[in-house]
Design a protein that fits this description.
Strand order of the largest sheet: 12-11-8-13-16-17-19-20
CATH architecture of the largest domain: 3-Layer(aba) Sandwich
CATH class of the largest domain: Alpha Beta
CATH topology of the largest domain: Rossmann fold
Number of helices: 14
Structural class: alpha/beta
Number of domains: 2
CATH superfamily of the largest domain: CoaB-like
Helix content: 25-40%
Length: about 400
């Protein structure tokens, strides 16, 4: 995901410095070219040899070290960087960055960097909330430097509050958001539905399906990484939502219908990946349940047709993509759905095909539009999400 991307990690004197070893390792596994600059104080918490072993590059500490790869080290590395992450960032380095002080290798290289810069503060909560530090963080924001909000919890000093370095997952996701993909979906508002819905029979039982939400969540994450403003409407699932997306949690088909209709009018692209339960107990059945007659035959009625309603009310320039899960006549049934629902694209897959459908980490999609039918190979759901969004961008 980060092939041919150069990530520079700036590490300062905080106990949280040990966490960055895992960040560096994970970035290497994503095929990034990782370079590390440490302050002298950071070396008291973790040895530079750790990062040299992980990255295969000399860890830079001394501004005047003559054993270097480049002619002018801080300038060359700053030019090479696609992104610069300072983590953990102490109050000291934040103050230097906010006021243009360059008195060591890290602060000097930062001043020469033209790439996006991320700063992850880590310090005692009283230091973090100090007005001077907060003013410096505001100045960084004014300069276009993105500050990653620290986590809250028990700190190394045993105080409790804001100031913890965020988990490695959070730091990695911030880097990916900046440089993993070209931001070809920038300024696009994308509404995505994912997961199943549940239609209550009684306080214990409900009608649902086997959807896990993995496909919809993958689409939401890739769209976010490509710069889109993503709203994800999710039924009940057991997976973590993608970062940087607006999440609306719903339970029933009626809930999902209402959430979709409330957000549809200001969305440029709508992707209905949710597997909505087609039926729910009828009004008559609901009355029987209230009278404790739940064991009698339950009458069912259709839930609202979300995709059909979107097609009827599609605004000019809006793109609507639905999903079709079939057990037979995949292309014919999906193309009929495309026409009937007034959609622009249907992503179809067969429940009988190995590696496709519910609960898997892979999918086999056929992307059907009015004038085309593109069969994709089996691939990860995130890779399938990339292909789906690529196709939508051509419409």
């Amino acid at each position: 995901m980060l092939t041919n991307k150069t990530v520079v990690l700036g590490i300062t004197g905080s106990i949280a410095a040990y966490k960055i070893a895992n960040v560096a390792s994970r970035l290497i596994k994503l095929h990034a070219d990782v370079h590390v600059i440490m302050t002298e104080n950071a070396c008291n918490f973790i040895n530079p040899i750790t990062f040299e072993t992980l990255t295969g590059h000399k860890c830079l500490v001394d501004t005047f070290d003559r054993n270097f790869e480049f002619n002018v080290e801080h300038v060359s590395l700053a030019k090479k960087a696609d992104i610069f992450l300072v983590a953990p960032a102490t109050a000291n380095i934040i103050g230097k960055m906010a006021n243009g002080i360059a008195d060591d290798m890290l602060s000097t290289t930062l001043l020469a960097a033209k790439c996006p810069v991320l700063v992850a503060p880590a310090m005692n909560t009283n230091m973090y909330t100090n007005p001077v530090v907060q003013n410096n963080l505001c100045r960084l924001d004014d300069f276009g430097i993105k500050v990653i909000e620290p986590a809250t919890g028990m700190l190394a000093c045993r105080d409790t509050g804001a100031g913890k370095l965020p988990d490695e997952d959070v730091l990695i996701e911030h880097i990916l958001k900046e440089i993993a993909y070209p931001h070809d979906l920038s300024k696009k508002r994308i509404l995505i539905t994912a997961g199943p819905t549940r239609e209550a029979i009684d306080p214990v039982r409900f009608i649902t399906n086997h959807s896990t939400g993995k496909m919809g969540y993958a689409i939401a994450r890739i769209a976010m990484l490509r710069g889109a403003d993503v709203t994800l409407i999710s039924g009940p699932v057991s997976i973590d939502p993608p970062m940087f997306c607006d999440i609306i949690n719903v339970t029933s088909a009626e809930d999902m219908y209402n959430a979709v209709m409330a957000n549809a009018s200001h969305s440029d692209i709508i992707i209905k990946a949710a597997a909505v339960a087609d039926y729910r107990p009828s009004t008559v059945a609901a009355e029987k349940i209230k009278k404790s007659d739940a064991d009698s035959c339950i009458e069912l009625e259709r839930t609202k047709d979300i995709l059909g309603e979107l097609g009827k009310n599609k605004k000019e320039g809006q793109i609507i993509c639905g999903f079709s899960m079939e057990t037979e006549n995949l292309i014919e049934n999906s193309r009929a759905k495309l026409i009937k629902k007034n959609a622009d694209m249907i992503a179809a897959n067969s429940l009988k095909q190995e590696g496709a459908g519910f609960g898997t980490d892979t999918n086999v999609l056929t992307l059907i539009t009015e004038n085309s039918c593109e069969e994709l190979d089996m691939m990860s759901k995130e890779k399938a999400a990339e292909k789906l969004l690529d196709k939508i961008m051509t419409l």
